[in-house]
What we know:
The chain is of the alpha/beta class. Helix content is 31%, strand content 28%. The strands form 4 sheets. It has a 7-stranded mixed β-sheet, with helices on both faces. Strands 8-13-12-9-11 form a 5-stranded mixed β-sheet, with helices on one face. Strands 16-15-14-18-17 form a 5-stranded mixed β-sheet. Strand 6, helix 4 (106-117) and strand 7 (120-121) form a beta-alpha-beta unit. Helix 8 (223-236) crosses helix 9 (257-266). The two termini are 26 Å apart.
Amino acid sequence: MRASIFAFSRQGCQTARKIMGACPDAVWQSFTMERFGEADFSPITPKCYGECFSSSELMVFVGSCGIAVRKISPYVRDKRTDPAVICVDELGTFVIPLLSGHIGGANAFARKLADSLHATPVITTATDINRRFSVDTWATENGCAISSMKITKAVSAAILEVDIPLKSDFSISGNLPNGVMTGENGGLGIYLTVTEKEPFEDTLRLIPHILHLGIGCRRGTEKEAIENAVTQVFQENGLDFRAVKCAASIDLKQDEEGLLSFCKGQNIPINFYTAEELESVPGEFTPSPFVQKVTGVDNVCERAALAGADHLIVKKTACHGVTVAVAMEKWEVHFG
């Protein structure tokens, strides 16, 4: 985790060192007043706040909340992308999340830090203090994309007063948290799925990243052709592309510019397998004598998709020189 910390007094620098020591896995940038001469701190400059806000996942201010609010206010944009911001008084008595408490993880980090410092966490978000289900926190902690921030806001408001129905395409273990109940339809609800189905009038879909794309293509296939083929497959099967975790193909394609460009543009990693590795993937696949002759394995896209996944959900689909298959990892919903 990329983190930055700001201290505004000599005592604050001591507390900042305790904070950094309590979080050794973070990569810290530390700042204080140049006049203090603290060798392990960089001098605070007017532009460092904006630079840290854009590059850090966590910002910690050791000082008053007022200082923190004034310093970050020009840069606050969107709860989906703003970093977690936490304020700690210079004695390390209180730990106060100020920004991105749920999606950014500030609330969870504040509790963890307070425990390490033997301090008091000051949590103010309504779902937390009322011990109701925080849908955006749960989604973030469980690696799910959120379909709509507008509906997330509606769910977070409604869940303080009534239980919200929850539908899942996956098995659920543990007791449902306060604020949700099992349900298939209604006005407002939560749906755990990789599809674009919306069973409620206002459906908040939580989309786990568990789909593997298997892609085969002719030599020299353009990025646009691959993108069109994948889009067609997802539309025809009602799948949400945000569920994609990775792509895969045979190692003969590891220098295929169009394929690499597509994956880079979609910000998804791609794995390449040898013919022998693909041949060893268990299952029934759609054979192709031509593919067997060229690659040494009877099917690339289905086998590549299934490597590292649990089962195929879309078999080989051919489109303008591109073949696409989709497999899904095994995934369960855990509460409690």
